[in-house]
């Protein structure tokens, strides 16, 4: 069952032309923003202090809503949908299943930023008949030449361990090529969301030093192939986008996905960090819309 979220005076809660809705699921209430008409397109946001779906995608949503029926999912654990005791990646993966099942979406396209790209990729691998096209923004693959964790991830861990305003600013500055994008408005918005107690607790399940150490130990003890070693199973037509100057997920991370995903394209944006949809908005919109709207020749 879906519900509009409304202000006390009864007007629909909107950001631009998007309506904020909620979906009751067996795992709590999911909230998502809906806009446009056409084929279904699901947006999956990234991780990090104070992130939300609309924080990631509100700037580009109008361009895509002109052609697609857009759903911007708010993952559990980031302060908009109901919180979860699960690791954010696990909760996010379940949330995608709950969203598409709950809305009766048989087959969708997906745009996923960073963590959202990883979750979207996993969904596409597990449900090959339900994803036609997949677009990711950075964050996919594995560092080949760059150190791991990268600079931006190290700053993210530092903030999660000791959430100060100064550490938040340092992390935000690592996210972008153009430092003028780190405005007081952005800092204040992110600070308020990131320091909400349940949101901070969720972040520590993913990015605290203890959580990172536990994840590394579990991976070392497991016989399961890592995520990057399963990319050859991806059937969806895939467009990987990346900022050339990404300090969170350095560009060499794309090499394994580019070699192993069967049907994959790559577009690299210059003068661009981790937020290609923000720093290279016009170029991102035109590149991704061309990919999503391309008519594929029958094989």
TrEMBL record:
<feature type="domain" description="AB hydrolase-1">
    <location>
        <begin position="39"/>
        <end position="279"/>
    </location>
</feature>
<dbReference type="InterPro" id="IPR050266">
    <property type="entry name" value="AB_hydrolase_sf"/>
</dbReference>
<dbReference type="GO" id="GO:0016020">
    <property type="term" value="C:membrane"/>
</dbReference>
<protein>
    <submittedName>
        <fullName>Alpha/beta fold hydrolase</fullName>
    </submittedName>
</protein>
<dbReference type="InterPro" id="IPR029058">
    <property type="entry name" value="AB_hydrolase_fold"/>
</dbReference>
<dbReference type="Pfam" id="PF00561">
    <property type="entry name" value="Abhydrolase_1"/>
</dbReference>
<dbReference type="InterPro" id="IPR000073">
    <property type="entry name" value="AB_hydrolase_1"/>
</dbReference>
<dbReference type="GO" id="GO:0016787">
    <property type="term" value="F:hydrolase activity"/>
</dbReference>
<keyword id="KW-0378">Hydrolase</keyword>
